[in-house]
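Troubleshooting: if your tokenizer reports a length mismatch, compare against these two reference records.
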Amino acid sequence: MRIRRILPAVIATAALAGLGLTGVATATATGQSVPSVVTPYECKQGGGTPAINEDGNYCKGGTRDGEQVD
């Protein structure tokens, strides 16, 4: 009789754990942001250097590092 009581609890726990893992995967996938475009002023204000003449026109360093400069 003891197994009959434990088995549904184990199944319910496994099902809830599975739902928790899919929630984490969804949150991770949607948490990624699209690279933004910043002005040279915003790049400098964040402590970076706008590399406008280089390939891709990206901000180097600071809080805006790697973002495209327009």
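Reference record two:
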Amino acid sequence: MKLVPISPAAGTGIGARLTVPVLAFGGILMAVMQTVVVPLLPDLPRLTGSSPGAVSWLVTATLLAGAVLTPVLGRAGDMYGKRRVLLAALGLMTVGSTLCALTSDIRLLIAARALQGAAAAVVPLSISILRDELPPERTGSAVALMSSTVGIGAALGLPLAALIVQYADWHAMFWATSALGATGFALAWWTVRESPVRSPGRFDIGGALGLAVGLVCLLLAVSQGGQWGWGSAPVLGLFAGAFVVLAVWCRQQLRSKQPLVDLRLASGRRVALPHVAALLAGFAFYANSLVTAQLVQAPVASGYGLGLSIVATGLCLLPNGLIMLVLSPVSARVSTAYGARVTLAIGAAAIALGYVVRIVDSRDLWVILLGAAVVSTGTTFAYSALPTLILRAVPLAQTASANGVNVLMRTIGQSVCSAAVAAVLVRHTTVLDGVHVPTLPGYQLAFAMAGSVALVACAAAVAIPSDPSPDGPERTVGRPGPTQETALEGRS
């Protein structure tokens, strides 16, 4: 382990004071980039002269690239500098958005959307930077805000994109996100200083390639299973390939002296259970926005739908982002007082309660908004607690890579949720004016499924060992003091 000189950008002026909001802005941009294409999906086959199947890759490419690059860039940040890798991720995101604005060719659009997937590493890298740079008393609330930006950006992205698409050319949406991305890059370059904590060594290229192939096979099978057929040869082959590749990858990681992912550390209960909870929380969270958007847009003739436009639907989801913004410091205070695992358990239980509200009544708009708000409240508590649990359980030199894996587990949970909800709704449909529309019992079954997963996440949170530190859960999360730094330097 070694400590590197702090970059010239470091300081105590206004730039240093803006580090937290600038990093949070980057996290919001990441979530916005993932959601802005959703309002365009029904019209893109006509606009690009391609098939609906090809257009669906605009979502799949971003998902796959983000899943692969998150742990890889997290490890690179631990080794080569978190600020440097953060800027690279923001730069790739901006370049991808600009390419989308310049073309209507579906092949270039898919490639550009894959570049945007690099932004998925922004959140774990930022969380690691906050741990390295902030004093302990500020770290908890900053990490909670950073983790909540995923939900905040998702809630903001849909109405923003819908408004632009409705009143301007669709390329204007990508020009707007390009400008936002360039702004985020410039602000991060100005305010964020390089962390002094490094983990030098050789980058595990073989491990990165193995993880990439395994994740692509797994997530491609999950995301395309409904379209290709779950029993089809391509899907079964992808699942089998993912199992074999990831099994070989795990063996290689255990034998490597400098692995991409420290599986021995990750297998301990204090790290493994937060990863499991992240996967389950990602599943439970994603059903809220995914199902709500479809339900309120369903035709009134269905007996339950409200027939809202895409803009009105986005405005219905907007309060969820505001809730996460307001409650993130509250969740941090709960973690400080009672421990992050208690916060995670409360959040998961609240998510389950929100889905109970959705099951009881999904016809009245105010009840729909209330249930969604309860789920968002629980998501805020759960998502803010997860990085804190990881930060206190791993060495300083592995914070970015460990949080990258935790974000990866959330992504996998969201992907599985999308496939599971689609499978449920396909099996519970009715024909209305010649169009297959999901039934209300189908939506309620999806809510019950997500609520049940949230309860399992609550059980996982309760099973996480309590912090052995006598100083409390939050004392181990902040920047290392002089004694810790001396110890690190002595081991280099």
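Descriptive notes for reference record two:
- The first helix runs from residue 14 to 17.
- Residues 1-12, 469-492 have pLDDT under 50 and may be disordered.
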